[in-house]
Amino acid sequence: MAKAGFWPIGGYKISFRSDGCWYADDEVIAHPRIASFFARHVRPDPGGGWMIDVGIDRQAIEVEDTPLVVVRVSGDPANGFRITTNDAVEDDLDCRTLEIGRDDVLYCEVDRGGRGRMRARFLRPAYYDLMHWVDEQDGRAVLRCRGVAHTLAPGARTQPA
After folding, report:
1. Which tens digit of pLDDT belongs to each residue from 129-161?
2. Are the beta carbons of 95 and 143 closer than 8 angstroms?
3. Are 153 and 109 members of one domain?
4. Is the pLDDT of residue 79 over 90?
5. Domain boundary among 47, 63, 79
6. pLDDT band, residue 4 (cuts 50/70/90)
7. pLDDT of residue 123
8. CA–CA distance, 29 with 133 (Å, rounded to integer)
9. For 10, which DSSP code?
10. Distance of alpha carbon 101 from alpha carbon 32, whole angstroms
């Protein structure tokens, strides 16, 4: 059914996993428009979890790590970086929100207006796109962006160096 191009919200355990894919039960939702639709409508629920909210249709979902992932990075240190997330939104990267988590996974925060601020996990290709610009300074990883050096350190948001 996932390949048919139509996916009803109810009746399946919907989840978003750290590999950047949506699942219905344990089957990958392979249709890109459905995956994009879900990404554009995921939001926090009042109980501290996540839901897909499409007007009057709402369904609780499981989120393995983050509800959004960074799929692309463009730009350079002089002009700043732009990121694209799986909800098809392109934003300026706020380097102050960069954070290295467990297993050296890189995260940032994105603002989704009425859906709130959300943490986004960098998928491996986007991570490598950004790490191309990271230098070592005094034994620390440093990303320079628009004249400010941001020290990348595990467990904390970046700090200007």
Report:
1. 999 999 988 888 899 999 999 998 776 666 555
2. yes
3. yes
4. yes
5. 63
6. very low
7. 96
8. 34
9. T
10. 28
Give the count of domains, the chain: 2
What pTM was computed for the model? 0.86
Instruction: Based on the fold, state whether residues 15 and 94 are members of the same structural domain.
Output: no
DSSP-assigned letters across all residues of the chain: -GGGT---STTS-EEE-TTS-EEETTEE---HHHHHHHHHHEEE-TTSSEEEEETTEEEEEEESS-SEEEEEEEEETTTEEEEEETTS-EEE--GGG-EE-GGG-EEEEEE-GGG-EEEEEEPHHHHHHHHTTEEEETTEEEEEETTEEEEE-BTSB-EE-
Q: How many C-beta atoms surround the C-beta of residue 150 within 10 A?
A: 20
Mean pLDDT of the region 20-36:
92
**Taking the mean position of all CA atoms in its chain, how far away is CA 99?**
12
In contact, 15 and 63? CB cutoff 8 Å? yes
Q: For residues 25 and 47, is the Cβ–Cβ distance under 8 A?
A: no
